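job 3f2a | input accepted
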Amino acid sequence: ARYYLGMTVNEIAEVEGVGKSDIGSPGQKSEQKKEQSYESENESGTPELLRLYPRTVVLGMGCRRDSSLNAVREMARVALSRAMIDKSAVRAIATVDRKKNEMAFLALAKEWDVELWSFTPEELESAGTKFAESPFVRKTVGVGNVCERAAVMGVRRIYREREMDEKNLPAIDLRVQKMAFNGVTAAVAVPAWFIECKPSQS
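job 3f2a | predicted structure (202 res):
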C-alpha cells in the first residue's frame, strides 16, 4: 500500500490518475479498511489534506465484568496516548474469549469502527513468557495476563493474514505494557514494520 503524507487530495488524485472522489473520505467503507484509515482536514482558505493511517495497531484489553464504556474508552485513549499513536491506526481490540461479549468492548469497537478479536487462554499462553502475571487474573480467566498477551496475539494474527512463514515471523513491538485503572487494563502492540502515526493536533 502507498501512504501519502502531507499531500493534498488533488495532488494524490493527480499522482494516481483518479478523481478526488475515488480516493476516500472519513467514514468511507472500502476494501482497504483493514489496511488504512482516512482522516481529512479542510480549513477555510486552505487545501483539503488527507492523512492515511495504516491500520496495524492492536489494542489489548481486559476488564472487570460489566465495566462501563466510559472507563474502557478512557483506558484505551490513555494507552494510545502513551504510545503516541492516533486511534485511527487501530485495527482491532483484542481480549480473552470470556470477555468477547462485554458490552463496553463491543460498544467501543463499534464506536471506533474497529474489529473485536478474542483468544482462548491457551492461545494467549502461546504468546510467550515475558509478561507481568497476576495469580488472581489466572484464577479468574485461565491466563495470568490478558491485555499484553492479547495485543501480541493480535499482531500475530495480522502476520498470519499476510501468509507469513510461521517459523520466521517478524518481531512484535509491545509499545505500551500493561496499564490499569478502575478495573480496566490495556496494552498496545504494533508490527515490526509499523509506520509512526502520532495523534493529530486538530
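job 3f2a | Residues 69-83 form the longest helix (15 residues).
job 3f2a | closed
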